[in-house]
Structure formats: C-alpha cells, structure tokens
Amino acid sequence: MSIQTDRSRQLLAESKLYLAGGVASSLRAAMKPTPLFAVSGSGPRVRDEDGNEYIDYLLAYGPLILGHAHPSLAEAVGEALKRGATFGLQHTGEIELGKLLVEALPCADRVALSGSGTEAVMLALRLSRAYTGRQKVVRFHGHFHGWSDAIFTSFPSPDMKQAAAAASAGAVPPGTSGQSELSLKDVVLLPWNDFDALEQTLRERKDEIAAVISEPIMCNNGCIRPKPGYLEKMRELTAELGLVMILDEVITGFRLGLSGAHGKFGLKPDLVTIGKAMGGGIAISGVAGKEDIMALIENGTVGHLGTLNGNAVATSAALATLRELAKDGGSAYGRMERTADRLVEGIRSLLAKHGIPGLVNQAGPVFHMMFIGEEKVEDFDAFNKRDAAKYARFAERMLEEGVLIRPSGLWYVSAVHGEDETRATLAAIDRVMAGLHS
Ligand SMILES: Cc1ncc(COP(=O)(O)O)c(C=O)c1O
After folding, report:
1. How confident is the model at residue 161 (pLDDT cuts 50, 70, 90)?
2. Which of 28, 118, 282 to mutate to test the pocket of ligand 1 (most atoms within 8 A of CB)?
3. How far apart are CA 143 and CA 150, in angstroms?
4. Which of 12, 154, 293, 353 has a CA positioned 20 to 30 A from the CA of residue 3?
5. Span 30-58, mean pLDDT?
6. Residues spanned by CATH 3.90.1150.10 within the chain?
7. Atom 7 (ligand 1): residue with closest C-alpha?
8. Alpha carbons 188 and 105: distance in angstroms, whole number
C-alpha cells in the first residue's frame, strides 16, 4: 500500500520558490516519503493536502497536549484575538498565568515569559552567569536545549567518540555551520547519568562554572530516565558549590504532570525552562525559578526582552491549556498515561510476536520506540546502537497505515487519544512489523 503524496510534493516544490528549503524548520525537511502539507487537524487526527488522515503521535513535536483544535483552546484564542492580540502593555492575563505557574511549579518563586524554548534556555543561561559571575555551562551528550549559538552542539550526534574526543580537546562540536565558535568555548560537554564525571568536573572547575543544564529525562534521545539519585546528587552538589542547576523542562513541563518532572521527582532546581505543551500549540515559553536569581531581571541586572513576550493570545492559550489539564484533579494525566501504557505494552508484545529486536522506553505520556539488540537502553552510547534506518522505514510504512509518528522514534500521546486510536495504531504496527523484513 502507498499513500498519495502528489499534492504535498507539488506544494513542497512551490514552497521552495519562496521559503529556504521549502520548510520552516530544518528537521521537517527529513520527513519521508516527503514533507507533508497539513490542511487541518481535530483531536488526535490530522489531515494532509492529499486527503490522507493520520492518527497523530508527532503532535507538532510535543506542544499539542490537548490534540488538534481543542474547543476550549480555540475559544480562548479566538476571544483574545477579538480583544486585541498584543499590546506592548501589561495585561491581567500575564498575572493570571504567572500566578498559575508559580502555584503549579514547586521551584517557581517568579516566572519570566518568552516565545520559544530556545529563548527560555538563553535567558536561563544568562541569569546563571549574572548570578554566579562565572561563564561556563555544563551540558550533557544527547540532550537538546534549542538552537541558539550558546548551547547548540552537534545533534543528533552520529559519533559520540568523535564528540567526546573533540570535547576533551576543548572544542565542543557545533550543531551547525555558521555558529560562533567562541560561544561554545563556554560549554563543557559531559556524559549524562554519570555522577562521578559530573562531580569531578564541578569540583575541579567550580570557579569557572555558572550552571549545569539538564533535561530531567533524556527525552530527546531515547527517553532515558535519570539513574536513582542522580538528579538529587546533582542538586546537592550544585547547591554546595554555589552554581545554578537548570532543569530544561521544555518537553517534560506540563507533560509529565502539572508540576513538571521536578515536581514529580520532588526536586527543586534553581531554574526550569518551560515551553511546548504549555501553550497547547501557540508559541509561549518561560523561565521559572528562585526569587534571588529571578530578581536579577527585576533589578535590571539581566535584560529580558521580546516584542511579543506575554502577548494576550499566547497567555490565553496557556491559561486555557493548563486549566484544561488541571480539570477534575488533573484527570487528563491519568488518561494520557493509560493510553501510553496500552500502546507501550502492545508494542512490546508485537516486537516479541514478530521476533524483532527492539524496546520502548517510556516516561508517562511520552515514549521512545527503537529497534535495537540491547536488553536496556540507559545511556546515550547504548541508544546510538539502535537501527535508526530501520525505524525510519517503519515510520514511513506507518504513514501508509494512517499513523503519523516521528522518524526518530519519539512518540507523544495527547489527552484526547483514546481506545479507538490505540486499537487502530496497534493493528497498524502489527501489519507493518509483519512486512518489515522485506
Ligand atoms: C528539551 C528542549 N529544550 C529546548 C528546546 C527548544 O525549544 P523550541 O524549539 O521551542 O525553541 C527543545 C525543542 O525541542 C527541547 O526539546
């Protein structure tokens, strides 16, 4: 079976006449058999220009936690637009959202709003440097923190040995050509989930290190959980040495629960970055954290700028999304987890049934499926042993079965995916796996 993609291909060719590369974000160019042009979405389903309909687990790379065109979100955004999209003045929506965030996120005394995850990370790094008076930032192999020059290292890294060798020679491999080499001189790249490596580096170089930034779960590469005690020890050590611990919750924030991963894990980092699911598909992000660090914005030490920061459309989208997620004691999270659990259990049984070596790492409503001979994938080196080409083939064939998944292996489940979607998805996987050897 193959799907019609003529119209998407035609539109890509037309788009290339005007948009560099024909797509608005480089990652999208890699989609096989071709980048698809969406027409509309509703709930857990999306339709493309060729008339194909897919059950959607891409979910726009994470933000669509309520699925497509959720009525509460659509209404809130529509009403906000009627009142005025943005003012460049303050409005009460910012206060309502700020209050909601401070109440939901355990580490948040104050928040600062921005537009994208990349900007939030930029601000968190800037706050850390101003707070400590130090320059360097520790980040980890396999994590992703957006595409600003200050933090974008090779991603996904095809060869970690090469990256590690370059890093130990003092040159962190850039994420792209054209990136300032100077900014990456402030980045110290370490393996994740290795507390000894972290402790050694932090103790030796504490006088130059401003911050450690980490995803709480390595969602971007393998959905790998922290080893028991790892983040807690990171917390203790960074506090002891007086440097800032930043948890990048752009994926996990509001996805694992309303209090984010740090709330779930009972951790209090100094700063967290949030984005993606927060706005349900409308651009909004933020930094939340400790009063004395966030005070650097208030007293003018750290610049926090952005024409559209806190605009009324974005704040109303975030308020609608977070209120929807909080309804009935947060029952959406239970629903998402049950759907994800059923999918993951089903995928594991199907891997066994078809004798395909593979595994699934799950963190609540997000999971990473991979074809790999390992029993477990608990670090980035193990993750790099997966058969990425085979998975990309699998993703392409799933499209033919009406299921949209990310070719990297990361699946997102929304609050509106249910039994019907789970059943249809597992049946599709069964058929695709049956033909995967050919
Ligand atoms: C953990 C993490 N941080 C930051 C970002 C950057 O966010 P954005 O794409 O909104 O700039 C991403 C994006 O995928 C992310 O996964």
Report:
1. low
2. 118
3. 14
4. 353
5. 97
6. 6-69+330-434
7. 117
8. 28
Nearest-CA neighbor of 429 among 361, 345, 364?
A: 345
Place of tokens 């003012």: 87
Q: How many CA atoms lie within 13 A of 363 on its CB side?
A: 26
- 104-118 mean pLDDT: 98
Pocket-forming residues, ligand 1, beta carbon under 6 Å: 116-118, 121, 144-146, 215, 220, 248, 250-251, 275
DSSP string, 43-61: BTEEEETTS-EEEESSGGG
Q: In angstroms, rounded to a whole number, what is the distance separating the alpha carbons of residues 37 and 69?
A: 17
Tokens of 288: 């939340």
Question: What is the identity of the amino acid at 366?
Answer: V
Report d(CA 129, CA 338) in Å as an integer. 41
| Among the four given CATH numbers 3.90.120.10, 3.30.230.10, 3.30.499.10, 3.40.640.10, the one describing domain 88-310 | 3.40.640.10
Inter-CA distances, 56 with 155, 312, 413, Å: 24, 28, 8
Count of CA atoms in the C-beta half-sphere (13 A) of 28: 16
Pick the CATH number of 6-69+330-434 from 3.20.20.70, 3.40.50.970, 3.90.1150.10, 3.50.30.60: 3.90.1150.10
Instruction: Of 347, 348, 365, 369, give the one whose Cα is nearest residue 222.
Output: 369
Confidence of residue 181 (pLDDT cuts 50, 70, 90): confident
CATH 3.40.640.10 occupies which residues in the chain? 88-310
Which residue's CA is minimally distant from atom 14 of ligand 1? 146
List the one residue out of 293, 273, 272, 297 whose CA is nearest residue 284.
273
Considering the chain, what is the average pLDDT of its residues? 95
CA of residue 64 to ligand 1 center, whole Å: 14
Q: Considering only CA atoms, which residue is closest to atom 13 of ligand 1?
A: 146
Which stretch of DSSP H or E encloses residue 366?
Answer: strand 366-371
Report in angstroms the alpha-carbon separations of 98 from 111, 172, 196, 210, 318: 6, 36, 37, 26, 10
* Pocket-testing residue among 114, 141, 144, 252, ligand 1, by greatest number of atoms within 8 A of Cβ: 144
For residue 153, what pLDDT is reported? 87
Where residue 315 falls among pLDDT bands split at 50, 70, 90? very high
Q: What is the pTM of this model?
A: 0.96
Q: Are 22 and 29 in contact (CB under 8 A)?
A: yes
Q: Please give the distance, rounded to the nearest whole angstrom, from the Cα atom of residue 429 to the centre of ligand 1.
A: 28
Residue 267 in contact with residue 232, Cβ under 8 Å?
yes
The predicted pLDDT at position 45 comes to: 98
